[in-house]
From TrEMBL:
Top-level taxon of origin: Eukaryota
N-terminal signal peptide: none
Any one GO MF annotation of this record: RNA binding
UniProt domain Sm: residue ranges: 14-50
Keyword RNA-binding annotated: yes
Source organism per UniProt: Prunus persica
Record-given protein name: Sm domain-containing protein
Gene3D superfamilies: 2.30.30.100
GO cellular component: ribonucleoprotein complex
Keywords: Ribonucleoprotein, RNA-binding
One Pfam family, short name: LSM
Length: 98
């Protein structure tokens, strides 16, 4: 459903209301579709909306669908690994690898 309005400068702004929206979270070869419910997108944030080909394969075959709890654990592990890498790099700055 789209709702139109006019902004301060007289430009047409179309707000979009998505029903049954979900966020696809991908970590490595794992993915999960997390339901968001009703989602309102402000018109100035809309660039392009198009249709998907429902018959077309969305993901490569090696991707594995996992429950939300498992994808959250995978996200945390990935974030922790990134933080550790950053802190190790910071401790080694004195070596000046550039």
């Amino acid at each position: 459903m789209a709702e139109s309005s006019w902004d301060y400068y007289g430009l047409l702004i179309t707000n979009v209301v998505l029903e049954g929206a979900c966020e696809r979270v991908i970590v490595g070869d794992l993915y999960c579709d997390i339901p968001l419910g009703l989602y309102v997108i402000r018109g100035e944030n809309v660039v392009l909306i198009g249709e998907l080909e429902l018959g077309k394969e969305e993901l490569p075959p090696h991707m594995t669908l996992v429950p939300e709890a498992e994808i959250k654990r995978a996200q945390k592990a990935e974030r922790d690994a990134t933080d550790l890498k950053g802190s190790m790099r910071k401790r080694m700055e004195f070596l000046d690898f550039d």
